[in-house]
Each structure stands twice: as C-alpha cells, then as structure tokens.
C-alpha cells in the first residue's frame, strides 16, 4: 500500500507535483500541495512528482518504508 506525505511546512506551492501527477495532488487555498484521496496516479508518476518537488516536500511510503525517488530510475 502506498502513502503520500506532503510536508506542508516545506511546500512552497510550485505546483510541479500537480503537473506531474494531477490525479493525486492539488494546490489548496493557501497554495500548498495536498493529496487527493485516493490518489489516482500510478507509483511511477507519484515518484516522479516527489522527485520534481523543488523543496523535497513529498515522501512516498510503500508498506511503511519510504521509497527513494531517483532521477536515475
């Protein structure tokens, strides 16, 4: 099972996650990323969204373990 965590204190509202995985992220009224529940994008798109975040504010967790997004994947 995947869990998406957005560190709202680190999020600056760049919106890259929304661009990469629009069925899983949106910007709220404070222009901070929030997760759409349930997320509608597949795991590779979620990892790309985490990687695209300029402040590294997104963590993807699979079965209780953080998944490391890498530009080499």
Text of the CATH class: Alpha Beta
Question: How many strand elements?
Answer: 5
Strand content: 25-35%
As a whole number of angstroms, the C-alpha radius of gyration is 11 Å
Can you characterise this structure?
With 73 residues, the protein is an alpha+beta fold. It has a single domain (2-67), classed as 2-Layer Sandwich (Alpha-Beta Plaits). 21% of the residues lie in helices and 26% in strands. It has 2 helices and 5 strands. The protein has helices at residues 16-20, 43-52; strands at 2-6, 25-27, 33-35, 58-62, 65-67. The strands form 2 sheets. The protein has a 3-stranded antiparallel beta sheet, covered by helices on one side. The longest helix is centred in the middle third of the chain and has 10 residues, at 43-52.
Question: Top keywords for this entry?
Answer:
alpha+beta, Alpha-Beta Plaits, two-stranded antiparallel sheet, 26% strand
Summarize the structure.
By secondary structure, the chain is α+β, with helices and mostly antiparallel strands. The protein has two helices and five strands, in the order E-H-E-E-H-E-E. The longest helix is centred in the middle third of the chain and has 10 residues, at 43-52.
List the helices and strands and how they pair.
Blueprint: E1 2-6, H1 16-20, E2 25-27, E3 33-35, H2 43-52, E4 58-62, E5 65-67
Antiparallel strand pairs: 1-4, 2-3, 4-5
């Amino acid at each position: 099972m995947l869990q998406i965590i957005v560190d709202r204190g680190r999020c600056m509202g760049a919106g890259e996650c929304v661009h990469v995985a629009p069925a899983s992220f949106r910007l709220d009224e404070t222009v901070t990323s929030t997760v759409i529940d349930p997320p509608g994008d597949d795991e590779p798109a979620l990892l790309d969204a985490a990687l695209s975040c300029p402040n590294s504010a997104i963590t993807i967790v699979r079965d209780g373990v953080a998944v490391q997004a890498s530009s080499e994947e």
